[in-house]
Amino acid sequence: MAHADAPMAGRNAPLALLTPLNRELSLLAFNWRVLAQAQDENTPLLERLKFLCIVSSNLDEFFEVRIASLMAREREGSQTDRPLVPPGFELVGPAAQALVQAQYSTLNDEILPALAKQGIHLRRHVDRNEVQRAWVRGYFDREVRPLLTPIVLDPSHPFPQIVNKSLNFIVELGGKDAYGRGTSIAVIKAPRVLPRIIRLPSASSGAEDEYCLLSSVIHAHIEDLFPGRQVISYSQFRVTRDSDLWVDEEEVKNLRQALKGELQTRHFGFAVRLEVAENCPQNLSQFLLDQFTIAPEFLYRVNGPVNMVRLNELVDLASEPEFRFAPFTPKLSVQLDDGDLFAEIARNDILLHHPYQSFQPVIDFIRSAATDPAVVAIKQTIYRTGMNSELMEALIAAAQNRKEVTVVVELMARFDEEANINWADRLEKVGAQVVYGVVGLKTHAKMALVIRRESGKLRYYAHMGTGNYHPSTTKFYTDFGLLTANPVLGREVNEVFISLTSLAKPRKLQHLWVAPFDLQRELVRAIRNETRIAREGGVGQIIAKMNALLDDSIIEALYEASQAGVKIELIVRGACSLRPGVPGLSDNIRVRSIVGRFLEHSRIFNFLSEGANEVYLASADWMNRNLFRRIEIAFPVFDEALKKRVIQEGLQPYLRDNQHAWELSANGEYHRRKPRVGQQPFSAQQHLITTLGA
Questions:
Q1: CB of 638 within 8 A of CB of 349?
Q2: Rounded to an integer, what distance in angstroms lies between the CA atom of residue 589 and that of residue 572?
Q3: Does residue 167 carry a pLDDT above 70?
Q4: Annotated active-site positions, please?
């Protein structure tokens, strides 16, 4: 049941900057495109399940962050404790409900039956044979029941605190308890220490890939928890809570200490969504809505596990390699004949294209600097890096080796706060200078600077990138990075670092575009330059790739350029407020979204500029938050050969893609591109795996 089309924001809404919730609708539309990958029979079977889990993970964050922020605004202006519904949610709510229903239909009607045909079974209680049922009972008695604490509600047993996104059960009981009272409602929390997917022993069926859900185990034996009582009805449930950390950065004296305190309460923010089983009785779902102060619009009845993300465990457990993407090894793009990375960078700029090319040269860059006696200083920004990072260990080693190490750690990187705080603690203990960017602005720029003393003079070596210094995401996010010894770029990177620590405006820079100071202005200038060229009879052309396009001024400049005859190709993976192909407004603009094996993450801006081909790589999307509420950089590619590579690898294949590309139409809907008659199928990502991989 592969879907050819995906619903989009504002189907019948005004064409330009649609509604206040346009971004939310666009994010849901993106998840329809991800869901289409789960429905695509050409995608390996276990990867289809993984795409389905990605949709669930995205929806979790959608409610934890986007919907929670809308509710928070309403709560600030409200004097009541009644459930709140943000203005405009009447458009978003039905779209989210439809997406969730499509998810579970895909799981139950397509993916689970297809897995079963291949011998991979997720057994419900009714599907298990007698041997399996006996084993499950033993597992319940041995591993599960001792960890359960069923709570029957009464004045001395109030409704328990429920952790964000945890698995729970609500039970309606009949009869009287051991003390002769008619208590009727119980809550059971599923232990978080237990796996959600349990492998059944092969001896019970003769098959290797037999599994069941922890929720199914508890369901099957829920009556055992209430001996002497009648279980009238029950349902699994999960509540999603606001997960933003609310810290008044202007008031706190130590942001790191303030965040440590906030992290303790993150799992108990106000509730924004309730998920229950499809057959949950009305009285129980209403009871839960009342307990969490949630409006009925935020109730989701699901036909399957309430936390579909946990099915990723099944993807990890199943052993069949033929149901996964074929493995590939990233190419090591830097071949060091003499082992001297700095000499190689000094000879030529090095362009890295991840994940097709290895991230190892970036790690080697910092690791070499940590032990090189000629290196006097290392400076680096950290947005996301993970709990385990060779790169961060190298920075610690550099500080221990008495290098001047300065690290700008973004403590407010959502869901990475704890990891970043831990790294900041460790870096400070070895003498590194750690700062947390600029109050009120996230430091999202990706840059590292190594300063060496060569022949009595200081020389700059820089790395700038479009993605994070994260060992995991570099394997499945598409990003570009540049290693350069260009002295002008090196000095400008250093000026940005000085600005971040001194809080002074950076000196006038020749080549780097820096948010919040001039990035938007330079982008609009470059767009208007193409407009001028087209109006003067020349050829104007813009090709740009990013994750989101929402900034009003840039959209207006693009509309103006289109009307002047500039040909504009936009590759926008996620939310997009611009409407292409509108007669008289955006006739010359095309927008496409690529959703495939890897997450498209690179930001590339190519302006034809009368044949000069200005090419910029950036950490920033064309969104107001990136352009005005973050520290971002866009940096040029000077080397003509590397510039050609960026265009040939980062842009042109995506304009040819007819396998994973979706085109945005003037009415706000996305349509999947397919090969025309006589045209060969072409996947940009597969092409790059073939041509760039080892």
A1: yes
A2: 12
A3: yes
A4: 444
Given a contact cutoff of 8 angstroms between Cβ atoms, the answer to whether 89 and 296 are in contact is no
- Per DSSP, the three-state class of 556 is helix
Between 269 and 214, where is the model more confident? Answer: 214
Query: What does the pLDDT read at residue 224?
Result: 94
Q: Which residues contact 288 (CB under 8 A, 6 or more apart)?
A: 170, 237, 239, 274, 276, 294
Is the pLDDT confidence value at 250 over 90? no
Distance of CA 632 to the CA centre of its chain: 18
The residue whose two tokens read 């045209």 is: 679
Residue with tokens 């936009």: 570
CA distance to 2, 35, 416, 605, per residue, from 422 (Å): 44, 35, 10, 35
Instruction: Calculate ∠ Cα 567-569-573, nearest 5°.
Output: 160
For β-strands 661-664 and 670-672, DSSP reports them as: antiparallel
Report H helices in 410-551: 417-429, 487-502, 519-535
Using left for φ > 0, alpha for ψ between -120 and 50, and beta otherwise, residue 433 falls in beta
Task: For residue 446, give the 3-state DSSP assignment.
Answer: strand
How many other β-carbons are positioned within 10 Å of the β-carbon of residue 20? 12
**pLDDT per position as a tens digit, 108-131:** 999 999 999 999 999 999 999 999
Residue 50, pLDDT score: 96
